[in-house]
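Lab notebook page, bench 4
Experiment: in silico fold of construct C2
Operator: M.H.
Input chain length: 236 residues
Purpose: comparison with the prior construct
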Amino acid sequence: MRYRIITISLSVILAALILPVSIADTLVQETPPGFPAVGETFIFGRYEQDNDPNNGMEPIEWRVLAIEDNAALLISEYNLDAMAYDEKTYNSAITWEACSLRRWLNDNFLSTAFTKEEQGSILLSAIKNENNSYYGTDGGSDTEDRIFLLSIAETEKYFPVYGTGKAISTAYAKAHGAYIVDASGTTGWWLRSPGFHTDSVAAMTPGGQLGYIGFFAWAPNVALRPALRLDLKTIR
């Protein structure tokens, strides 16, 4: 009996030594010291926000939506800009893969808002572009992006309660045409999923309700809340 107990004990010790190497990443999500928890905010990058270019760009505040696979999913706390989902689309089909906003986010915004070192911490994410879950509108091909917008499914997951998706637009976004409904300063913001038709795009409404119908893709007054995945192994 004593031999059996010793054998079992040794087996437990060996398992404890082996498990952290083989499956620790799937059981425990390690984050850098001081990194915010889900629901908290994190400063990363810079972008014009007070609409005064003379004082330089302001630090971007990001909300942590999830931490998994040694990466943090972030979305900007405020609406940072406003523009059409696709500047050339008018009564014609468009998807996230082909839209001008996707190109702008992964070119202009990426190079403007982040240093080369910061860009190295932004993961190239596999982006799944599902059909509109209510209307069945085609979402197009999947993509790979460093900067992206949330999908309908992701918005349902991370902003499940009415009103939690409200976002205030910066002075810069307002100056670029973000449509302000009332004194609260909240503005509707684009998702990447299609709306009720192939020339429309789903969006969060100013009141914080997920709009499956969406807005026409050429609408210039819908705001942007960029999202990205941050490689936590590069954060010190």
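Observations: The helical segments are 2-27, 100-113, 116-119, 152-158, 171-175. DSSP finds five helices and twelve strands in the chain.
Next step: discuss at group meeting.
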